[in-house]
Fold each of these.
Amino acid sequence: MSTTLDPTSIDTAAPASTTGLRWPDLPAAQQPTWPQDGSLERVRETLAGLPPLVFAGECDVLRDRLSDAAQGKAFLLQGGDCAEMFESATADNIRDRIKTLLQMAAVLTYGASTPVIKLGRIAGQYAKPRSKDTETRGDVTLPAYRGDMVNDFAFSPEARRPDPDRLVRAYHTSAATLNLVRAFTTGGFADLRHVHEWNRGFIANAAYARYESMARDIDRAMKFMVACGVDFESTPLSAVELFSSHEALLLDYERPLTRIDSRTGNPYAVSGHFVWVGERTRQLDGAHLDFVSRIHNPVGVKLGPTVDPDEVLRIIDKVDPERQPGRLTFITRMGAGTIRDALPRLVEKVTASGAQVVWVCDPMHGNTFESASGYKTREFDDVVDEVRGFFEVHQALGTVPGGIHVELTGNDVTECLGGSEKILDGDLEKRYETACDPRLNHQQSLELAFLTAEMLTARSS
Ligand SMILES: O=C[C@H](O)[C@H](O)COP(=O)(O)O
Ligand SMILES: C=C(OP(=O)(O)O)C(=O)O
Ligand SMILES: [Mn+2]
């Protein structure tokens, strides 16, 4: 479907930035210090010769789905690891993450009474921006871990040395992951009847009894569908769409994996269906925003509590000048204590400008703190409260809450505090397995889905 990118074409596909420079020459924040031995250039050439991981047509389908989310006709569930790791790309881990997303999506579909768009932070989420360039343990200071695409999590000088060959390994691990995602989502595993049975298993635990009535309502709806003769073997009840996404952080990975779509002649990132620019790299005259402004995928931009509303308008002008519905998603990550104050002025200004973006709530990144025992963690109640604040703000303004963006795993980890399982600080050491930020475990993820579904139901009734 696509040809390898002529490196000059993407540079001319959109106007130069306000500085007059084009993205290869613009400053790019949060890039690793790669070795200066020619290995990076060799790796970029290798990547440029590899097949696309996703197809432009699939990205267009996702953009259409997101256009529905912008108008309240669909709801986005975006979720997965903070940092995927090569060694965690096992069949069991991938299956359990997909299972968690499918279970959440079933509950949210019921709550929203609209389709739920399933978008994994998966098959490419291998690079991390960091607050500090180094990490110190005792009297040893080493380069920070920047994701498996850059260096290794182990705390030794060899492990932490950036290695360009990891970019190629990230590509192949993403390919293997996507292959399994496609099999799991189309091969019968995603049948709504299984998903509903899994959710019944979750509710069977007394800790989650408060969600029983919603599960019973879903049960009745399923029986009604059977009585009406609905064929569960047919799509979309047995095969689902699950799209991939990651932060477009490492331009040495993204640039060689940008290709010209043979149908339209437009450039697309073929490393994932949706890519986003993070809070630390969204400088208006930086390389990241310039890069996403030139590709035709649906793209996201994270917005933290300090963002200036006028800056947000300039981001729209740069990334979505044609105001194409579904093209631009703003993923706000304000913090539970801040969202009710900080979000309204952004939404008001953007709405007044006539832009139609998808507003998505990331209730994770504004709620991170260090626990007394020294773990980077988040309180489940803060996560829920930020989602609640997000719904309140949109309700008050008459605008559309388009979705949620969550760091989660299908595994039974102990990384975030609270939830009905009541994970305490003393429990964190038991199964703290994340390579970067704390994720909701399987149970906490489902609980968040039920609570969000209640908010969605309250809104639509
Ligand atoms: O998701 C990622 C983190 O929020 C980001 O990498 C910063 O983490 P740090 O403060 O531990 O570096
Ligand atoms: C780094 C992340 O988020 P943010 O850019 O919002 O801090 C992330 O999504 O893991
Ligand atoms: Mn994170």
Note: The longest helix spans residues 91-112.
Amino acid sequence: MRYLTIALTKGRLAKKTMELFDKIGINCVEMQDEKSRKLIFVNEELKLKLFLAKGPDVPTYVEYGAADFGIVGKDTILEEGRQIYEVLDLNIGNCDMCVCGPKEAGKYLEHHQFIRVATKYPNIARDYFYNRKHQTVDIIKLNGSIELAPIVGLSEVIVDIVETGATLKENGLCVLEKIVPLSARVVVNPVSMKMEDDRIKKIIKDLRNVIEKQ
Ligand SMILES: Nc1ncnc2c1ncn2[C@@H]1O[C@H](COP(=O)(O)OP(=O)(O)OP(=O)(O)O)[C@@H](O)[C@H]1O
Ligand SMILES: O=P(O)(O)OC[C@H]1O[C@H](OP(=O)(O)OP(=O)(O)O)[C@H](O)[C@@H]1O
């Protein structure tokens, strides 16, 4: 039997994903050793290979078939636009993609002809503002601490993830418009879905059962 390769997202989603995997009998203890520099973990018994990657790289591994399937945030799926199947919502890492800014920017957003939008998600922002044909929207790509942009005058608004709202609140900003709810999803390579159908389907079914019980 060939090995199935699974790509997990590093960072915020990692711990919760591994907890779910543990519950369906896929042991991830070795992957949780933060001191280790090991990149790939082989489960001989289940014929699985697991690895952790940066979020935006997970859809890339899955599209090319280097991973048969992966776990990644919906934000990343939308932003990367890869040829992959999204098959299950894991209901972890729940948050929202929003347009945010100072309260006054709400009116600016409605009436002004020229809007600057800072974001780590330029494709999501471009798609969202695409329909506002009467406005010119300048999308400014940043790599973190997006909330700084309207504070220092780089942009009027931002497109970013809001979870608890604490970052916005502490910086005098608020949600102006909600774009889309987000959570972690299972994504599958289209060829793997056909070739390894039964094994992948079994893992998806087991994950679904665990989620439904939670
Ligand atoms: N408060 C949050 N902020 C950012 N992402 C969140 C949050 N809550 C849940 N998520 C989800 O967790 C995923 C991974 O988030 P994480 O912050 O670890 O990655 P990242 O923002 O790409 O990290 P970094 O840029 O620091 O490498 C996101 O893609 C998103 O789906
Ligand atoms: O609503 P909250 O619970 O405050 O969470 C949202 C914040 O968390 C994320 O930033 P992150 O911590 O990933 O740092 P970054 O801005 O450097 O990417 C996100 O970009 C927001 O800034």
Note: The two ends are 32 Å apart (CA to CA).
